[in-house]
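cron nightly-structures :: item 1 of 1
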Amino acid sequence: MNILAVESSCDETAVAVVKDGRTVLSDCIASQVALHREYGGVVPEIASRKHIEAIYGLADEALVKAGIQRENIDAVAVTYAPGLIGAVLVGVNFAKAAAMALNKPLIPVHHIKGHIAANYLAYSELEPPFLCLVVSGGHTMLVDVQDYTKMKILGTTLDDAAGECFDKVARVLGMPYPGGAALDRCAKLGDEAKYVLPRSKPGENPYDMSFSGLKTASLNLIHHAQQVGEELDVNSLCAGFSAAVSDTLLPRVKMALDQTGYTKLAVAGGVAANSRIRGDIETLAHEKNILVYLPPLHLCGDNAAMIGAQGYYEFLAGNVADMSLNAYATKSIIGEEM
């Protein structure tokens, strides 16, 4: 089954062709990073306009690279939530038009489910059930993946997402957007013990997390150093910040593994590219003698191949949409609007 997949939830326009949910025939991405770098972050209106400019040509490119004709497409999958509403609408409207023109099924895909499904493309042997740690720019959560389309959120961030905090701290330090990669490089050169940074403690739900206190403490350190003319050890601050994020995530992952009894752990989302988090996950996997699935770096960020992968399983489960499909800025992976 060949699925034409569309992703436009933020600042990456992406179209891919995926076969049977596991084989990527093409994965084309038009990045807007250079454009938004001037503003230090994504400007939603500009992102939406650039999606409109890129998406049609990108779809043709995806078909050419896949080596198939339009009539060989069996369904169209699209990210319909969550994301920047204007950006998501571009992808949804394009996918609806494509499905109608091709007279093929339209498959709505939740963006976070797509990130989880990126692991299916990298690991052909991976099947549910398993535990997944989702760490992206807008979401941080522990997910019990009970089946390809049935999932349960064990815990989530109560405020800021880990990825948002990485980007904000990097921006205040003067690093170019997106700052997560630059912060990660600096962290490898620093002393993580030099600055004392907070870790959130378990609350009513021990799996829930908080990163706002860590972000505030880090920003206060930076601003204080600037105000008193004190030289800031940027590398050490980055190392300490990365360690604090990982120290917030890992105990909850370990607790969830113990509770569920799962011996498989997957990681998903853009922050899954962070070297400190990846290293600590691998160490935990070794200690607990479990299988760990870390997507390759090119599948950590937003892409359409992951939407095609999840779209295949949504189709098998009968989750198809008609032309009334709408876009949502926020929506839970268990189907409840937020």
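cron nightly-structures :: done
The chain has a mean pLDDT of 94.
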